[in-house]
């Protein structure tokens, strides 16, 4: 595994969305779906708007692998489940800050879906 470069972090952080393609059981990528992405320090995180019922999220939890594309960055990633309350508090704040202009009807479900937080670890 590697880490994100400063350039990759900045490009993805400033992109509106990220294309997420979780891996199938045979390792091939599923069809990418657009999702919101936030940055916390040197890490990137995503959540499922539909909670654990989200199709892309169920696939991501099954494989813990995927491919992401955002801000001109295209990477294979490991998807690590996040349960730390402190990290999730910061991710809540990051979603409110980055996407607050879309209103509570979009941001509140993202904050409520904190049990679906996945850290994107490049490789």
Automatic annotation (TrEMBL):
Gene3D superfamilies xrefs: Electron Transport, Fmn-binding Protein, Chain A (2.30.110.10)
Source taxon at top rank: Bacteria
Pfam family, one: DUF2255
Identification of the protein by name: DUF2255 family protein
């Amino acid at each position: 595994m590697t880490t994100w470069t400063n350039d990759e972090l900045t490009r993805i952080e400033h992109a509106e969305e990220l294309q997420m393609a979780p891996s199938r059981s045979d390792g091939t990528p599923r069809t990418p779906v657009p999702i919101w992405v936030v940055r916390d320090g040197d890490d990137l995180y995503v959540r499922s708007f539909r909670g654990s019922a989200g199709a892309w999220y169920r696939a991501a939890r099954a494989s813990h692998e995927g491919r992401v594309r955002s801000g001109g960055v295209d990477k294979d990633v490991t998807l690590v489940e996040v349960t730390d309350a402190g990290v999730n508090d910061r991710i809540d704040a990051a979603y409110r800050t980055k996407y607050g202009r879309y209103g509570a009807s979009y941001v509140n479900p993202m904050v409520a879906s904190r049990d679906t937080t996945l850290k994107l670890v490049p490789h």
